[in-house]
Every structure is written in C-alpha cells, then in structure tokens.
Amino acid sequence: MTRSIIHLDMNAFFASVEQQANPELKGKPIAVVGASHRTVITTASYEARAFGVKTGMAIWEGKRACPELIIVKGDNKKYTHTSSRITAMLREYTPLVEVFSIDEAFLDVTHSQALYGPAETIAYQLKARIRHELGLTCSVGIAPNKLLAKLASDMQKPDGLTIIPPERVGEILERLPVGDLCGVGKRLQKQLALYCNVHTCGELGRADEGMLTRRFGIIGKRLKEMGQGLDDSPVVPVEEEEQVKSVGHSMTLPRDVESRDYILKRLLQLSEMVGRRARRYGLAGKTLSVQVRLGDFFSNFQKQITLATPINLSDDIYQAAVRVFDSMGIDQPIRLLGISLSNLYEHEGQQISLFETDRKKEQLTKAMDAVNNKLGDFKVTFGSLLDEKEKGSHVISPAWKPEGIRNVTVT
Fold this sequence. Notes:
Elements: E1 5-10, H1 13-21, E2 30-33, E3 41-44, H2 46-49, H3 59-65, E4 70-73, H4 76-90, E5 97-101, E6 104-108, H5 113-116, H6 119-134, E7 138-143, H7 146-153, E8 161-163, H8 169-174, H9 186-196, H10 201-206, H11 209-216, H12 220-227, E9 246-257, H13 260-280, E10 283-294, E11 300-311, H14 314-328, E12 334-346, H15 356-375, E13 406-408
Parallel strand pairs: 2-4, 7-8
Antiparallel strand pairs: 1-6, 1-7, 2-3, 5-6, 9-12, 9-13, 10-11, 10-12
Helix pairs in contact: 11-12, 13-14
C-alpha cells in the first residue's frame, strides 16, 4: 500500500503567535528575538520578510532593512503551549504524529483515510481548524514519504497545500534544484555542482553511487536516494521511540553545524548530562554510543565503542565520545547529537582509585553534582561551556523537540 504522509509547517510561527496574542502587532513588521541584547532574529513576520528581514540577522541588520521593525522578546511558554495544542489536534486524526520541530510535524494518515477521507480532505480540515481555533496559518505537503512531504510543504508559502502524487515524483524532481531538498545546504549544493556536475534532483538520482560515496562518504548512498525521491523512514511518535537499556541524552542543534569547536562543546555538554544522570542512579557503562543526525533529518548514524572498564565521569565520557565521533568521519552539517552509556554496572561501592589524579577528578565531580543537584543544572560547569554569546537567549529554536533536550530513561 502506498503511504500517505502529511507534513504540516506553521507559517512564521513565533511571530504569528505574537501577533495573535497582541492584536496591535497584526499586519505589522515584527521580529522575535531572545532575551539577550546580543541575540539574533529568530523569526520574522511576513510583513517584515517583505523588507528582507531574515532569520539569523542581527537586530541592527533587521532595523537597517526595515526601520519600522518591531522587536518582540520571545516567550517559550507561549510557543510550547500553542505547539502542544496543535499536536493534540493532529492526534485526533492519527496516532502516528511525529513532532519534527516546534512548528512542524509529520502525520501518517495511510490508515486514517477510511474514517476521515482522503489525505487532502484531512489536510484542509486541519488548516481550517488551526486558523479558526488558534488564528494561525500553516503550509501543508502531502506525498508518499516524509522527504517528499516536506519538499511539498515548502512549495507554497504561506498558507499553501501541495500534493506530490507517486506517479509525478520523477517529473517533479527532474528539474528541481538539488538545494530544494531538505538537508542539502548551500555548501553541499556547491560541492555537488563542482565535483559531480549535479545541479538538479534528477541528475542526483542518476549520479553514480560510487562517485558520491567516494566524495561524500557514508551519506553518498543517501544522497542518491534523495535525488530519486526515496525515503522509507517511518513516522515515529515520540512515545513509541525505541527505548534501550542505557543512560543517554540527545540534543537537536539550533542550526546545521559544521564547526568542530561547536560540536565538541555540545559533546562535552551531553557528556556531563549523561554522566550526571548515570551517577545519580549509581551506574557506570562499558559501552558508549554516539548518535549523529545530519541536516537532512533523515540520515542517522550511530557508532559505539566498548571500553575495558565502566565509566561515568563526565570527562571520561567526553574523551571516549570524541574518539567515537572522529572515527565516524562525518564532514557534513550536523543537526542532532546524542550520547548514551549502555552495558551498565552498579557503581556504588566501587573501589577507590589508587591514583591521586583520578581521586581528585572523582572528588571534583561529586562536588559539582552536589551543587547542581541543589541549585539546578549547569550552575557549576566546565569553563569551555561558558560562551557569553550563547547566554541569555530564551527563544526556542525551530529545531525544538518535545521536552527540549531529549531524555532517554534508565531501563
């Protein structure tokens, strides 16, 4: 049976929520920013976009493009509450709802159509309900898989609905610029043109897989499949995601990232979160896994290493995680990182280390845990995580996932 996948993308979500909450902002150019004076524009209303105001601009750049631009400080609670209401609405039509980000979701309505009618009917009902109940608009794409559904939702913005039927996939992709595919950024688009003479999705789908793999490594096969419009990834609700006997955390990054320094900081942050969680439960693990999701959101890679002895100190986890990450050889923009410890052992009552440096590390870790457990996460942390440019922003990135930084429970 051919699947029917809907991708729903809220239009200028943060800005639209602010305009709906404050009628004085309706029809005016606004930009939503974080709490810090150094923050950048998180999103702009369509009125502001008409003047060239874009996500990622500094406030002064936005003001230069649009002198009448109204700056609005973002409100986490407001956006998460609205997003939760939308998600609840979507789940009335199918239990297969995957929250892709705070303003996007996939729905598998393959088996819902017997009750609610064709996917197109469901999409129009959702658009009407979201407009009537929340005063917001969205763009919707319908296709046989997630890759094409997301592509379709981007074709008509704002407030559009686009259908890519199975029989027209090849025709639509043939002349479509490869950069229109989710995950193919400007850098990768330039590399495909320069090294592979690939400019369109049709050309990418016909490209030699061996050539793509030699040039782009493990994502070569995936790129060819994307050019052919192939994607068999399921729509997975959060509550049905596979649970493993591990202690882990994953983090969706606020943008596609290539900077090694930035990635190492996030690995350190995750290592502290995993280590602290393991220590809280009196556990240590011998197997460490690193998960990486690329910017296309569909290419996921995981690699693990089994150590000689169990670990739970943050620095030990970090050192192992960096080794595993480097061995993966990924040189494409990354959107999600995750670290987990498995092959778990009880750690309480473990023999005291014979080496003074190790004893000091353990004592320091205990002191940090005591402070953070009492006062809150990361009140005491590693100096390299204290980046002033990253402080003070309280706006949720469009890459948000339920519960923010995702927790994997200890099982």
